[in-house]
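Hello support,

Our group uses your service weekly, and this is the first time we've seen a run hang past the timeout. The protein is VWFA domain-containing protein. I'm not sure whether the cause is the sequence or the server load. Input pasted verbatim:
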Amino acid sequence: MVAVDFTASNGDPRVPQSLHYIDPSGRPNSYQQAILGVSEVLQFYDNDRRFPAWGFGAKIPRGSVSHCFNLNASTNDCEVVGVEGIMSAYSSTLYSVSLAGPTLFGPVISKAAEIASHSVQYGNNKYFVLLIITDGVITDQQETKDSIVRASDLPLSILIVGVGNADFTQMRILDADFGKRLESSTGRVATRDIVQFVPMREVQ
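Update from on-call engineer: The timeout came from a worker crash unrelated to the input. Re-ran successfully.
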């Protein structure tokens, strides 16, 4: 599962300084690098190579700002096939949406958790990984924590890849590797640490 940040803080995609800039020379931008680097590994653990893929933080055609929309522009099917499908849907989306905001993780995490929950209910022995690629600070930190805590009982892990040079302090808080487990607004503590945060600048 992949979720891509289309908020305005990434910069105008038509400008070379934008994190979403599509270089005519074919050189991948930061988001394309993250998609390629992570998804090419994950696809080998997915037999059918079908990935739910979403965008968030953009104004979609003939609509308002959406914090979880299908990357392939379908109204009823969120899946794309292979890394090529993710890359193609990503590029097409850039030309069809308007970057907006704010940056909310809660809706996409809840959607991924819903898929994982349905899999458990139907007795499917599957494990899910949600890749979130983002450029910065979230504005729904408590809602995101609540979503993560609720999902901590499910066969789901969340890998957050930070692109650009923003302050990723909030992302490190969500990754409980160096502190206590996350706690929800109701006082519930996460069953396990399901979040891993990686800044792209540290792995390039």
